[in-house]
Amino acid sequence: MCRLLGVSKSGYYDWEKRPMSATEQRREDLKPLIDFVFTESGRTYGYRRVHAELRRAGVEVDDELVRKLMRQMGLVPVQVKRRRGLTIADKTAAPIPDLVRRDFSADRPGQKMIGDITQIDTGEGALFLATVIDCFSKSVIGWALDVRYPASLVCAAIDMAAARIEMPDGAIFHSDRGSQYTSIEFGETLGEYDIRQSVGR
């Protein structure tokens, strides 16, 4: 290699052992942060959303640098396709009130949360992502991924959300009337965290 590059062996080894520049160190420090945000999103965030989350967390970084580093790290967001009919209403479920009534404003974290299930198409088949979004921060605070979408999937997403933030008194979780959300299992999970359940019409 040294002969091809036209440099001496000692010169090559000196170059190889040189300390990182401040710029290089900065990029290395950013990589685990980028990887964390990307992974927390369920591998769905592109560089713009990763950049936005980093800025929200107080990390000063240019979006173009995030794009370059994600490319170097091989972080490619999976293609998300929303499919209607993932949640089917259970007509035998007990009635649950709509506590939100289209007012999704919130004064503090955990006051109001909304849930959804999204189908993600991959080269190896479909995955199903259940998310919990905090209406105050507008960010995902809980998620769960599986090849199926039973009630346990949305329960796992709530478990993560409750582990990440302290639920205030009177916390509300709002969703559609899908059977996963109106199931006894999910209702009991919300009860464990003293979260009030709300469903849309």
TrEMBL record:
<comment type="function">
    <text>Involved in the transposition of the insertion sequence.</text>
</comment>
<dbReference type="GO" id="GO:0015074">
    <property type="term" value="P:DNA integration"/>
</dbReference>
<dbReference type="GO" id="GO:0003676">
    <property type="term" value="F:nucleic acid binding"/>
</dbReference>
<dbReference type="InterPro" id="IPR036397">
    <property type="entry name" value="RNaseH_sf"/>
</dbReference>
<dbReference type="Pfam" id="PF13276">
    <property type="entry name" value="HTH_21"/>
</dbReference>
<feature type="domain" description="Integrase catalytic">
    <location>
        <begin position="105"/>
        <end position="201"/>
    </location>
</feature>
<dbReference type="InterPro" id="IPR025948">
    <property type="entry name" value="HTH-like_dom"/>
</dbReference>
<dbReference type="InterPro" id="IPR001584">
    <property type="entry name" value="Integrase_cat-core"/>
</dbReference>
<protein>
    <submittedName>
        <fullName>IS3 family transposase</fullName>
    </submittedName>
</protein>
<dbReference type="InterPro" id="IPR048020">
    <property type="entry name" value="Transpos_IS3"/>
</dbReference>
<dbReference type="Pfam" id="PF00665">
    <property type="entry name" value="rve"/>
</dbReference>
<dbReference type="InterPro" id="IPR050900">
    <property type="entry name" value="Transposase_IS3/IS150/IS904"/>
</dbReference>
<dbReference type="InterPro" id="IPR012337">
    <property type="entry name" value="RNaseH-like_sf"/>
</dbReference>
